[in-house]
Design a protein that fits this description.
The complex is a heterodimer. Chain A is an all-alpha fold. Chain A contains eight helices and no strands. The radius of gyration of chain A is 18 Å and the shape is globular. Chain B is built from eleven helices and eight strands. The chains are: A mainly alpha, B mainly alpha.
């Protein structure tokens, strides 16, 4: 309830071209938006950074130029813009198959400091998981990112994806099963 | 096989994917530059020392609680319109649009009352309402058939209400503590007047504690003569007493200019019921029962007068017409 209240105040301040509000929104949502775009673009860091910047610019323009209903959520607005930006990006760059799976291990920022052993372990796990995520369908990958990485509620995800809550639950269940199956297959093979 | 919890734990590792902090800071500056195009930021709106931004929270509160506010507003409208409807229904009579609402309201009030005495009071109130409706219906110059039926129904309802109140009061009277003694003076009957004229003291005071025998005769306690006084339940003398007591009962048949007859009675059932309510408040159940019977009689007189009046009006108006035509013809001849 409190976060909803703060969200609305932020929204109103953005409508009033408040610079501090923009900075605050940027700090609040950057990590999640970046992560969302990163996994949608098959772990392409540079493109994820470019698209994330464009998402914030587009959101700012959209809020200023449209008389939006105050009941809307700024969080869902950012995600919708991010999703649409990725779709536009795919349309423009139809050579999606040529996107190379980069070795992201050395480019990932990992929060564990001064513990090389741990870093190595994490890096290995992360690499493996990212590969699994890439093998999933787009919609499964998207929903897992939104639910477990960005920690959005079912209602929020339903709003972003423009689906019903029951649809989202079913999709999430299927995505989990698919990922579980993948992990089990790969680990059994090993 | 991975459980859900293990799977979620594994997936959560991917939360560690974040943009580089250098890129974060550089990007922030770039975006702010692009947004403002080199212009300085706008000043916060103030009105003197008052920061206009204070108004935002109210706007946000209204937006946040809009569904609750809407439902409260709808509730107020429904409740308010219900109350207004009940208020409008208060002065309705049979045949009116909101009369059913009035009856429903009475039934609800009755159902929500649990004290027997309060129920009796309510019963008296409803009987008063029936009496008022009766007088309004009688005053109507409506078509005779419907009017007669309505009057009949109202009288039946009135008597039912009074009977119910009587039963209730009798129960309370038997079950509860004896009511306080209330001194009452009665106008002496013919016998008593004759005796008093002969020099005997025959002034009697009846208290609420006076008992009744099976024949319905009342004996005054502490009175010297202990002479039985006829109760109103049985004898003609009692009815005469009551007639004398009330000193209001005079029936007049007044022929109106339209030829309709009206039974104008000085015994107003509503006034009698008001008196009954006052007596009930004072816990004088016996006197209340008497007043109820009085009111019942008054209404019977009114309704029977109306019925007779209907028949008499034709004859009366016909007679008047004959008389008047006779009078005019005689005057013309002159």
């Amino acid at each position: 309830m409190v976060s909803k209240f703060k969200d609305k105040i932020l929204f109103l301040k953005l409508q009033d071209k408040d610079r501090e509000a923009f900075v605050r929104a940027y700090d609040l949502y950057l990590d999640n938006i970046y992560r969302f775009i990163y996994f949608k673009l098959n772990n392409n860091r540079e493109e994820a950074e470019d698209l994330t910047s464009s998402v914030f610019l587009k959101a700012w323009d959209y809020i200023q130029n449209n008389n939006l209903d105050n009941s809307k959520s700024i969080k869902s607005l950012f995600y919708k813009i991010a999703r649409n930006s990725v779709i536009d990006h795919y349309r423009q760059n139809k050579e999606r198959a040529n996107i190379v799976l980069e070795n992201c291990a050395d480019k990932l920022v990992i929060d564990e400091a001064n513990n090389p052993h741990k870093i190595m372990e994490l890096t290995a796990d992360l690499e493996m998981l990212q590969k699994f995520m890439q093998e999933l369908k787009d919609e499964y990958r998207e929903i897992i990112t939104l639910r477990y990485l960005n920690e959005l509620s079912i209602a929020e995800i339903a709003d972003i994806l423009d689906k019903s809550k029951s649809n989202v639950r079913v999709l999430l269940f299927r995505a989990q099963n698919a990922l579980r199956k993948l992990i089990n297959q790969k680990t059994n093979i090993k | 096989m991975l459980t859900d919890k293990e799977l979620i734990t594994k997936i959560s590792l991917l939360k560690k994917v974040k943009p580089a902090s250098i890129w974060r800071q550089r990007n922030r500056a770039l975006l702010l530059n692009q947004i403002y195009n080199g212009q300085p930021p706008e000043k916060v709106k103030t009105f003197g020392w008052f920061n206009v931004g204070v108004i935002w929270p109210f706007k946000v509160i209204i937006d946040s609680y809009r569904p609750a506010l809407v439902s409260v507003f709808i509730f107020i409208i429904i409740f308010g319109s219900g109350l207004l409807g009940l208020e409008a229904a208060k002065n309705t009579k049979p045949g009116d649009f909101l009369y059913l609402a009035k009856i429903a309201n009475e039934k609800t009030q009755f159902a929500l009352t649990f004290n027997e005495k309060e129920k009796a009071k309510l019963g008296l109130e409803f009987a008063t309402n029936r009496a008022k409706e009766l007088s309004e219906v009688l005053a109507e110059p409506a078509n005779q058939e419907n009017k007669g039926k309505t009057v009949e129904k109202l009288v039946i309802n009135f008597k039912e209400e009074l009977n119910a109140v009587k039963l209730r009061l009798e129960k309370i009277n038997i079950a509860g503590p004896k009511p306080k003694a209330v001194a009452q003076t009665t106008i002496p009957t013919k016998e008593q007047t004759a005796k008093s004229n002969s020099g005997e003291e025959n002034e009697e005071f009846f208290s609420a504690n006076s008992s009744k025998d099976k024949a319905g005769l009342q004996y005054a306690e502490g009175s010297a003569a202990n002479t039985p006084v006829n109760s109103k339940a049985g004898s003609e003398e009692a009815s005469e007493t009551k007639t004398a007591t009330s000193s209001l009962e005079q029936n007049k048949i007044v022929a109106s200019s339209t030829g309709e007859s009206k039974v104008e009675t000085k015994t107003n059932p509503e006034e009698i019921l008001e008196q009954a309510k006052d007596l009930l408040t004072k816990d004088d159940y016996s006197a209340t029962l008497d007043k109820i019977d009085e009111a019942s009689q008054a209404v019977s007189q009114v309704s029977s007068g109306e019925v007779k009046g209907v028949n008499e009006s034709a004859t009366t108006s016909a007679a008047n017409a004959v008389d008047s035509s006779g009078a005019t013809s005689s005057s013309e001849k002159k």
